[in-house]
């Protein structure tokens, strides 16, 4: 069982950034409005994610760390219908199988917080203390018991850059949540959590890498687009500053990218990859269920239609912008 847990963990938890993604998504699913992410040494020494979400009831703690105990889906068809980010019920189990976890949590109906330490997937000790409602999970010594995986990790600075990308994307796709990101005890950024995406873009990218931001806010028959597009000021012509979120999940999709770029280039006769942060909302049934949702790449049942609608939306938003 221990071995099975470790092997299965490898699929979900590839590196420290996977842990950060899973923990923060849990915080989002728990309704948090403030999430703090702290990492040390590229997340290899520790990762701590604290939130003010609904917390975990004492009786549910053990279950939360059991594989599939919380799975919300029964078949592939359900995958895109769920509204929460988590659905497999195996992230916490996987994390606990390959690291040392400390959890402090409090629900609003009890007066005290519960703290547990989990090692080798089992609860080691439990204590009670004062705490505010929410959950804080510290993950230490990642892959301490899987040396082959540990060896596979890149340098702390490289691992940190993977984490930073994940945290940035989570902040960009959730402007209604305040994110605080700390690396090696230094504050990297804080977002306000007031729902204003443009402010999040300022906080994360500053003003040096884009100009002339245009707001995108448009609905067509099957899609709604919200976000910003602008000129990239980066000398290198690459797609590093383009993010697409479909129904809140960070994804990559050539059709959407091409539609945005083509519309932008043709309208503004700029022959460079634009900067953009675009949220696309679509009925989950129009997403091709044969593509696994844990992969960043997705397909739509009618790619042509999505292309046309995105293209038209971007064009209209550029035309309607008041200069
Ligand atoms: P999943 O997110 O797929 O359900 P996880 O292993 O990530 O599975 O989490 C297991 C369960 O633990 C969640 O379904 C949730 O009930 C609980 N949980 C995990 N993290 C938090 C959190 N930060 N706040 C409240 N509940 C949490
Ligand atoms: Mg989860």
From TrEMBL:
DNA mismatch repair protein S5 domain mapped to chain residues: 201-319
Keyword DNA repair: yes
UniProt keywords, alphabetically: DNA damage, DNA repair
GO biological process: mismatch repair
GO CC list: mismatch repair complex
Keyword DNA repair attributed: yes
Parts of the chain that traverse the membrane: none
GO-annotated molecular function: ATP binding; ATP hydrolysis activity; ATP-dependent DNA damage sensor activity; mismatched DNA binding
Family to which the UniProt record says this protein belongs: Belongs to the DNA mismatch repair MutL/HexB family.
Role, per record: This protein is involved in the repair of mismatches in DNA. It is required for dam-dependent methyl-directed DNA mismatch repair. May act as a 'molecular matchmaker', a protein that promotes the formation of a stable complex between two or more DNA-binding proteins in an ATP-dependent manner without itself being part of a final effector complex.
Protein name: DNA mismatch repair protein MutL
Organism: Thermobrachium celere DSM 8682
Lineage: Bacteria, Bacillati, Bacillota, Clostridia, Eubacteriales
Residues of the full protein shown: 9 to 331 of 636
């Amino acid at each position: 069982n221990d071995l099975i847990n470790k092997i299965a963990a490898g699929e979900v938890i590839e590196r420290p950034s996977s842990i950060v993604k899973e923990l923060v998504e849990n915080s989002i699913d728990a309704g948090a409005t403030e999430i703090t992410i702290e990492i040390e040494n590229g997340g290899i020494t520790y990762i701590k994610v604290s939130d003010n979400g609904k917390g975990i009831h004492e009786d549910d703690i053990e279950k939360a760390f059991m594989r599939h105990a919380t799975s919300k889906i029964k078949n592939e068809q359900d995958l895109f219908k769920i509204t929460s980010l988590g659905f497999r019920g195996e992230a916490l189990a996987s994390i606990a199988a390959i690291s040392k976890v400390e959890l402090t949590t409090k629900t609003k109906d009890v007066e005290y917080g519960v703290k547990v330490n989990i090692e080798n997937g089992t609860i080691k000790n439990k204590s009670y203390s004062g705490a505010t409602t929410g959950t804080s999970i510290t993950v230490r010594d990642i892959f301490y018991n899987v040396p082959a995986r540990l060896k596979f990790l890149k340098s702390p600075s490289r691992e940190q850059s993977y984490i930073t990308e994940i945290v940035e994307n989570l902040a960009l796709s959730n402007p209604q949540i305040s994110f605080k990101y700390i690396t090696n005890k230094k504050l990297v950024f804080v977002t306000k959590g007031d729902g204003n995406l443009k402010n999040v873009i300022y906080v994360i990218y500053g003003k040096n890498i884009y100009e002339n931001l245009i707001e995108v806010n448009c609905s067509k028959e099957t899609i709604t687009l919200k976000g910003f597009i602008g000129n990239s000021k980066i000398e290198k012509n690459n797609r590093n500053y383009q993010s697409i979120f479909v129904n809140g999940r960070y994804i990559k999709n050539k059709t959407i990218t091409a539609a945005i770029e083509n519309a932008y280039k043709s309208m503004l006769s700029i022959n460079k990859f634009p900067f953009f942060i675009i949220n696309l909302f679509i009925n989950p049934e129009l997403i091709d269920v044969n593509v696994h949702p844990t992969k960043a790449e997705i397909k739509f049942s009618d790619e042509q239609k999505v292309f046309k609608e995105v293209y038209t939306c971007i064009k209209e938003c550029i035309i309607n912008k008041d200069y």
